[in-house]
Amino acid sequence: MPRTSHKRERLITAGRELIHSKGFSRTTLADIAEASGVPLGNVYYYFRTKEALLDAVVGAQKDDFRERAVVFEEQETPRGRLQAYLDSVIEARESITRHGCPVGSLSQEMNKSSGLSRARVNEGLILRAQWVSEQFRAMGRSDAQDLGVWLIASIQGVILMANAMADPAVIERQVGQLKAWIEAF
């Protein structure tokens, strides 16, 4: 049996997986408790509400991107960092074709509601756009912010189309085009 101190992390992991595959509104705390192996009564010790768990899921998504960005930043050039980021999208193509982008899908779902969760969820996409913009800025682009937003929007659109077409090759082809575009800078 896993240690009690790991229950919170197991709940967040199960929450991330279920919210990605089913959506936030269709995922219950009971679903998360069952998937994590944590008794439902114990869930409330760690997360008093479903929104509190959502906040932890969003925080984990942002931490995950920051950790991945550290790896991308091992590339010597901003162009290389952007290429590494795009490679990570291609590598995740099977999962994101099935369920969409975990960050983009959640943002889209929560933007149909109001409240603090909406703003917090959007931070994940904004974080990505800011990081991408920094790379374009390092390449000397005065339109770096617009390019960062455009690239993230393009990736999200590609993921949406791959999901709609149930074809991971769409991601490989279209993100490949984005990689060629960046290489031409």
Secondary structure layout:
Blueprint (H helix, E strand, L loop, with lengths): L6 H16 L6 H8 L3 H7 L3 H23 L5 H14 L1 H7 L2 H9 L5 H23 L5 H22 L2 H16 L2
Helix pairs in contact: 1-2, 1-4, 1-7, 4-8, 5-8, 5-10, 6-9, 6-10, 7-8, 8-9, 9-10
| Number of helical regions | 10
pLDDT averaged over residues? 94
The biggest beta sheet, please? none
Terminal Cα span = 53 Å
* Alpha-carbon Rg, integer: 18 Å
What's the shape? Answer: elongated
Poorly predicted regions = none
Derived structural class: mainly alpha
Order of helices and strands: HHHHHHHHHH
Proportion of residues in extended strands: under 5%
Number of strands: 0
Helicity level, as a percent range? over 70%
Provide a descriptive summary of the structure in words:
With 185 residues, the chain is mainly α. It has helices spanning 7-22, 29-36, 40-46, 50-72, 78-91, 93-99, 102-110, 116-138, 144-165, 168-183. Helix 8 (116-138) crosses helix 9 (144-165). The longest helix has 23 residues, at 50-72. The chain is elongated, with a radius of gyration of 18 Å. The termini are far apart.
Summarize the structure.
The chain is mainly α. The chain is 78% helix and 0% strand. The N and C termini lie far apart (53 Å).
Please supply descriptive tags for the structure shown above.
185 residues, mainly alpha, 78% helix
